[in-house]
From TrEMBL:
It is a multi-pass membrane protein. Its main location: membrane. It is found in: Membrane. This is Bax Inhibitor family protein. Keywords: Membrane, Transmembrane, Transmembrane helix. Belongs to the BI1 family. The chain crosses the membrane at residues 78-96, 117-135, 147-169, 207-225, 237-256, 268-285. One of its GO terms (cellular component) is mitochondrial inner membrane. Coiled coil: none annotated.
Length: 334
């Protein structure tokens, strides 16, 4: 049930707000055709209107209509981003890592298990990004926007949970089926997140950099902290993610006139979710090391694919919220 609640609902909740425009009906009712040489401006106009429709639905009063990637100096932006990441690492380590390991450092089997888990996490995120881009270029994002939002939520949860639990319960000895289900899980996430490709690549790149910085600093704390120090967080985090998930469903069931309630549900979704999934990152890293010790004693099987799925879900949820927060900041500066 914990994994059921740790799904990113932001895209599906935004789909409810897509107006039933003539552009969406045109895309839904007719096949995609290559642009005619005599009407280059018309095809461009259809794409621009579809992109603007998604941005207006996605922002729910906070996403910017456009994103200016040319403003400012690139070097200063890189230095600013690096300073944020470095400061986050230092501050997180000072606050949460006062008690370090007592065994003189990480044993080789723990280090190997953790490195392989991070490698599979990075590979899974790469598959999600590539698949999302490919689906978007093939017109999947348009069709997803035209679908019923409840159908998107239902089919998305069935596909995600089905492939995820299939991955969990497939033994690591069954190599082909294990990695096949894991790949299907990543492609399912890509299908749900592909409409994010309507947003500007610069915004997505910044959100990705901040997500990596946040998760990297928290993972460093989890890897170097005292053994099993943060494993007690599992129960409180499950309660927190339940509240966050319910706030994510709020725009699907509440009327647009309940502005104050929607505003507070949005804050819980954004900032509460960022805190909860940051905590999950800390918990999951310590859980990986705990499972490494258990597998070393022969109590459980060594399965880095299962461990990587949890970290992938943490990354997706943090990344989506980073995109929203950066978009809101850019919109406030205009």
């Amino acid at each position: 049930m914990a994994f059921f609640l740790r799904r990113p609902f932001v895209v599906t909740s935004a789909l409810r707000q897509v107006p039933k425009s003539s552009t969406a009906r045109f895309i839904h009712n007719s096949p995609f055709k290559p642009a005619q040489a005599s009407k280059p401006l018309g095809a461009s106009s259809v794409f621009a209107k579809s992109r603007q429709t998604f941005q207006n639905a996605f922002r729910r009063t906070y996403m910017q209509p456009t994103y200016n990637a040319q403003g400012g100096n690139l070097t200063s932006k890189l230095i600013y981003g690096a300073a944020i990441v470095g400061g986050t690492v230092l501050a997180t380590n000072l606050v949460f890592n006062r008690e370090t390991r007592e065994d003189g450092g990480m044993p080789e089997y723990e280090r190997s298990f953790l490195n392989e888990t991070f490698m599979h996490t990075g590979l899974g995120i790469g598959i999600i990004g590539i698949a999302a881009r490919a689906l978007h270029m093939n017109g999947w994002s348009y069709r997803l926007m035209a679908m019923n939002p409840w159908a998107v939520v239902g089919l998305g949860l069935v596909g995600s949970i089905g492939t995820m639990f299939g991955t969990f319960y497939t033994p690591p000895e069954n190599y082909l089926m294990k990695y096949g289900l894991w790949t299907a899980f990543n492609v399912t996430q890509a299908a749900l997140l592909s409409p994010l490709m309507f947003l500007h690549p610069a915004l997505l790149a910044r959100a990705g950099m901040y997500t990596v910085g946040m998760m990297g600093s928290i993972a460093f704390v989890g890897a170097t902290a005292k053994q099993e120090k943060y494993l007690y967080l599992g129960g409180p985090l499950l309660a927190g993610v339940t509240i966050v998930a319910l706030s994510g469903f709020a725009p699907l069931v509440l009327p647009a006139t309940a502005a104050r309630t929607l505003m507070w549900s949005e804050r819980i979704w954004l900032y509460g979710g960022l805190a909860v999934f940051g905590g999950f990152t800390l918990y999951d890293v310590q859980k990986v090391l705990h499972h490494a010790r258990l597998s070393q004693r022969g109590l459980i099987k060594r399965d880095v694919v299962n461990e990587s799925v949890s970290l992938e879900l943490d990354f997706i949820n943090i990344f989506v919220r980073m995109v929203q927060i950066l978009g809101m900041r850019s919109n406030n500066r205009k």
